[in-house]
């Protein structure tokens, strides 16, 4: 693929944010002045730097900082606040930002949103801050028979999704999102702009699942697109406990499990189990397959909806919006300033949960009242010892501290109840849900012992290799956060 114009990519939409400083600048100069002076020294652009670097006093600053918060729990007076916003226009601006963030001991975060799709070569170059919905839309603009296997939540940013591994409904056929990443661009701790060839295979491996923020500032990924049929089939089948949902769950596909009001027991609650699935083909093909393999599912053609791959993306986001005539353009809506309060946790299941175990889980879920489970199946390319991943999911709108404590406690209790049924030694977790309950690092001190607690849970046997990569590419541990990869003990 011919290298696209970076000027075009940056112009599309981008935002570079420098997060909270760990030390204060000299009393004789503000952080803004110190950063701007450094920025001027490290770029050759003719653009007015005052139009690139914005201090907190800028009137647009509060709107921009809130615009990209996806969890309202992190939009409170106690949340660490941004200090500067940088809107780079060329690569050198990003490189200078990394260098100058070091000079004021601050952490850079990035949101670059350009997308270029090359249908002839079946690839797409996507900057880290583009959302999955924007990626799907830009692919659909150019081709109706190409897609990309990434998540079902369209407002998730590409950088976080890919650097945490990434998976979607096509993983059984096409593997994880990272299995289809063929190149990347990253600015390292020295301000060097690197691609796959110049960064080396170890770092390229690390940023596709090891958490990119531990190693540098990722600018973009290049995807190998995958073929999709002109017609795919989506379906949803629901049953409650009164309709033998436990038998239904024992079949297992992708399951949504939620406490709901019972229609049988007045004033009581039950569990609703919903199988939701994507089939890369027509309804006439999938119905007889599932009738043979999963007869208890009772799938009928009327349960199925035949759509294009693009419309299946809309269906997964919100099937009601598809029924109401939603258009692909809705994927370009970032839903600014509409975040709910939420908590997500995760587990992996390696042995089938017996019926009595499921019945115990249903009882506990009904008692708690709000927290739901999502069982995400593996298999085929993902058959590596895990049967499925469990997501604990609770979302609420009440901004009070009492509400937050109530719902957080619910999620944590259900997580505790699931202990006998999930992976052990370590009890594994999915990086992209970033669960601080499982361990945090005092990143100012870079405690290897603290990092090892969550690192083993997220990465299992890959943790030691990630430590080696981290120690080589960022020996001063500049790129760090509460759950970043720590340095090797000898360097800590």
Automatic annotation (TrEMBL):
Family annotation (Pfam families): BBE, FAD_binding_4
Cofactor names: FAD
Alphabetized SUPFAM superfamilies for the sequence: FAD-binding/transporter-associated domain-like
Keywords: FAD, Flavoprotein, Glycoprotein, Signal
Gene3D superfamilies: 3.30.465.10, 3.40.462.20, Uridine Diphospho-n-acetylenolpyruvylglucosamine Reductase, domain 2 (3.30.43.10)
Domain FAD-binding PCMH-type: 103-228
MF GO annotations: FAD binding; oxidoreductase activity
Signal peptide as annotated in the record: 1-23
Family: Belongs to the oxygen-dependent FAD-linked oxidoreductase family.
Protein name: FAD-binding PCMH-type domain-containing protein
